[in-house]
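Researcher: Next entry in the queue.
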Amino acid sequence: MKLARRPNILFITSDQQHWNTIGLDNPEVKTPNLDRLAQRGCLFERAYCPNPTCTPTRASIITGMYPSQHGAYSLGTKLDEKHPTLGQALSENGYKTSLVGKAHFQQLISTPEYPSIESYPILRDLDYWKKYDETFYGFDHVELARNHADECHVGQHYALWMEEKGLTDWAKHFQNAWGDYKFTDFDTSPQYLKWSIPEEYHYNAWIAERTNALMEESARQDEPFFLWASFFDPHPPYIVPAPWDGLYDPAEVTVPQATPGEHDKNPEHFRKTQEENPDFSDWKEEGGNAMHGCSSHLQDKESLAKEIAVYYGMISCMDKYIGQILDKLDALGLADNTLIVFTSDHGHFYGHHGLNAKGPFHYEDLVKVPFIASWPGQIEAGSRSAAIQSLVDLAPTFLAATGTAIPRSMTGLDQSKSWTGQQAPARTHAVVENRHQPTTLHLKTYVDARYKLTTYYNREYGELFDLQADPGELNNLWDSPDHKELKAALVLKLLHAEMGKEPLPMPRVSMA
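Model: Structure for this entry, 512 residues:
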């Protein structure tokens, strides 16, 4: 790969976005700016997250390691600062590295053993954030927030920006209490579907404005940059300011539903989600904390349609501000020398298989993500690829694209030559991990060009789907007598995949 000069990297992410919510392939959703980005680059159709929850995958993105390797294996855990990161490596190679928006590398409660600056009460200590000028996981510059929509976790740099813009009563647009923490004397109930905050103060506007300012600064200083614009939407709660809350008619959206009997062959925790008051007590363990998705997922079709309409509205609103970032890149004359990647940290259920949001259910809806890569002169414009991608590959790929040495701790694969057509696809498979309890909810999935296998720690049950014959994943073949040999072969492939992703922290420099 011959480069006249080192490319900039603009990394744009959404949060919990279903893979099939880009307008280019789904006419129910309007995403003109993501569409044009795809037309300028390659739309990858088989991209997977390493874990279908926020912290584990986000930590994998910057470390190039799987959650079982970097240790931030679930929500409520912290990524250890000892790990080499993408930002650190690029910064040492002369790049200005920045992150604006959601990090979620740390937990909401700080302890002496596991301190967190993404925690209470420091989140709302605006004096602290006014003075904050430190590197964060290798990023030279960060501007952070922690809330999804009107969650009370608001604060940090986003709250400072709202005040600078004149919204001094911003707290009225957000919930005011979480656990033992209460921030105002008035009560703000959770909002639903329509958010009271004016669009000009929405965090999408903040992320776009600050991203553009940082690109301008790098252009003035003629320095290469790595810039992560990390959006929060369309992660629930389902609310968005006007006019986006009314952009889609609930009567006109497709509402996915469970297929009768589809969970009959699935593990018990799938079936329990279709009960009114399921009992998941047998899955709870000491130290396990909350279990996302282990509850009833039953919902009437009418209310679900309203939520889908707003979910789409959140995506379209975000797309508008992604467009502002792409426009600024063009205006600065940087587009031709910038590698742009758009993706999401994991997928989302909105009725698929009778499920909502996320949980220990490794359907494509949750573990597959939208993924676009654009790099003028390097990646073929308007192309598509079924080559398997994993978000754990992003760090080594970005480093290779910039001519930066890849730390040996990184176990993701360099996809750069595959993206540019210089070599065959780097992957034959992806591995997805999920661990919300020490043992009872500890699962791993192996997925290749045709098959998907999910195994559970110390459990006899599992899932096996033929994605070619059964793309809707309705017929679990795990216990099928006719597929015993296939299951055994895939279990062996999963074992080989696990062995293949073990890190080699140093080379053998001597025979003994």
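Model: Residues 100 and 143 are 5 Å apart (CA to CA).
Researcher: Noted, moving on.
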